[in-house]
Each structure stands twice: as structure tokens, then as C-alpha cells.
Amino acid sequence: GWWYVTGGKVQFGYTGVANYANDYGWWYINGGKVDFSKNSVEQNDYGWWYVLGGKVDFSYTGVANYANDYGWWYLSGGKVDFSYTGLGKNSYGLWYAKGGQVDFSRNEKKSGWSIVNGQVKDSPDTTITYNMEPMVDNNSYSGRLFVGDSRVIQMYRYNDYQYYDQASFVTVGGGGYSGSSSSINSSDRLSTMETCTRESIEYTGGCDVYIFATPNEFNDSNSSYTIPVQRVMSVAEQAKTWTASFNGKTVAPTVYVVELIASKGVTVSGYNSYLRSMAADIGVQTISISDCLAGSNGGYTSGNLHFNTTTTGNIWSKLLS
Questions:
Q1: Disulfide: which of 55, 153, 216, 307 matches 311 by Cβ 3.0-4.6 Å?
Q2: 273 in helix, strand or coil?
């Protein structure tokens, strides 16, 4: 067999992941001997590790397929990530983890899906299409609100809802900012945005409101972007007034307008120039996400309108930083 040796002596009293590797990796030891049958999450001096066939699997990220005596765990690079709170997948489904451990007591009703005893249920197809229903998901403890169209729904669904609780969402697939009942800024959705913002301030002391410009109602080539930009900025101006009290002080949200990226190959320089000018006039900030385009097809899916997974992940990274 294979044995755990320190100081030239086999350690028959040692059980756990070896603190020293050999040329083939790190191994789980039982009574001083490598246990090639071990599948679990086990400990050494450097942390808790995912063991498959007796060997630490440094390539694994997700919820372990095998539990230990303390529960199921979320792993990053084969190691338990005690800082992780969110969703993770294993062979048995998609699970909610808190502090790195699957929380089987978690029950939560979300927009079109739910978490039941820690497991995601009724999860819709995460494939992005052009025809998606309006969606609202209030996660007020996040301190953020994302407002927009189907690209923002992509962000919600990104990587099996990895960041679903990092913002509240008010979205309409294919929607614009016309103010009609079917638009992103219909009266009822504006009311929901206001509620999400005020609750975030009350719970966390602040709220960053991100209003995403949409390609659904403009044509840059014939300069017909003036009214669409004004509509976006009208929402931003209203959002500035959604104040709430925190620790006895009135707190206003920080409002950002996310500049437009149109379909692949379409120029939107005029739109964004006018948007930046209006933003300066009313005192809100703009954010460009053009530097987030990456991966296959220039950062887009095959339809050349929605963003690919790499781009969507880059947008999350930028807005969370």
C-alpha cells in the first residue's frame, strides 16, 4: 500500500488529508495508509478538501457530490469556500449554500422558481431568448437595484443564478422606457423600483440603482435616439428622489445609468454621447460596459443581440467591484 510518512516514520495514528503531497497529489489517509475508496470532504492543516478515490480533486468547483459528517459543502478549486453564499450545483441539483455549507433550511419563493429545503425547484430554462416575461425579484438586503430588459434577465440567470441575490431586479424582456403598461417604467414597475430602493436603504444604509439603457427603441443611424435617451434619464431623475431613513438620517440612492451597447456591429456613439450629457445635467453617473465584451462572437450570442456568458460575467464583475 501507500503510507503517510513524516520524519521517516509511518504515521499509523493519522487519519485525514495528508499535510504533505507526493508526486501524484494530495491523499486521504486512514490509519496511516492511503484510502483509495474514500469519497468525502476532509481536513488537513490547510483547510477542508474534496476527496475522490482517496485523492484531493483540485479541479472541482461546485457543491460536493459527497457529504461529510457535518453536511454538504461548496468547493472552489477543490477546497471548501467558507466565504461563499449563493447557489452551487452538483449531480443531484442546484443548491443554496451559506458560509460554504448547503443550507437545507432555506425556503424562498423567487420569480418563476423557488428554493425548497435548500434545493432550487421549478428552475426555468436559462437559455436566453427574445421573448421573456416581465420579471421582478426584490432582494432588498443586497443594496442594489438593476432595471432593464432581457439582458438584465441574463444577468439574473447568469451561471445558474450565481448572483441572483446580489441585486433586486425589475425587468421586461424586449421592453423600453416609453412609460406604457408593457414598458420597463410602467407605473406599477416604477412603484416596485421605488419600494426596492427604499427598502434597501432601510436595511443596508444605501442603494445603488443601475438603469440599463436598452437597444429596443432607437436607431442611431438616423439620430432617432433623443426621445429614448430622455425616457431613460426620466427614470434616473425619479430614482434620485427615492429616499429613505437610515439611523435617523435621510439617505438618497446612488443612481447610475449603464450606457448602451447595441446589436453586434451597430454604432451607438450618438446615443451614448447624448446620454452622458443629460446625465451630467441631472447629476447622475454613467457607466460604460463596452470593455466587458469578450469571448466568442465578439461578446455576443449567435443572435448578435444578447451577451454571451463571458460578457455577462464580466459585467457582473465590474458592477460588483
A1: 307
A2: helix
> In this structure, are residues 307 and 300 in contact, taking their beta carbons and an 8 Å threshold?
yes
What is the identity of the amino acid at 214?
T
For 234, the grid coordinates are 426620466
User: Cell for 123?
Assistant: 428552475
Strands 119-121 and 108-109: unpaired
Nearest in space to 184 (alpha carbons), one of 200, 194, 173, 199? 173
Write down the residue that cell numbers 451630467 correspond to. 280
Residues 161 and 120 sit within 8 Å (Cβ to Cβ): yes
- CA-to-CA distance for 25 and 270, rounded, in angstroms? 56
Residue-wise DSSP of 29-50: EETTEE-TT--EEEEETTEEEE
Task: Render each residue's pLDDT in the chain as its tens digit; 321 residues.
Answer: 888 888 888 789 888 888 777 878 888 888 889 889 899 999 888 899 999 998 999 999 999 999 898 899 999 999 999 998 888 889 998 899 999 999 999 998 876 678 899 998 866 554 444 445 567 888 888 999 999 998 998 898 888 788 888 999 999 988 889 889 889 999 999 999 999 999 999 999 999 999 999 988 776 555 678 889 999 999 999 999 999 999 999 999 999 999 999 889 888 888 999 999 999 999 999 999 999 999 999 999 998 989 999 999 999 999 998
User: Exposed/middle/buried for 162, CB within 10 Å: 0-12, 13-18, 19+?
Assistant: middle
Residues 274, 225 contacting (CB under 8 angstroms): yes
Nine-digit cell string for 118: 435548500
What is the three-class DSSP state of 73? Answer: strand
> Distance (Å, rounded) from C-alpha 307 to C-alpha 136?
21
What is the end-to-end Cα distance of the chain in Å, rounded?
49
Report helix angle 309-320 to 150-161, nearest 10. 90
**Three-state DSSP state, 277:** helix
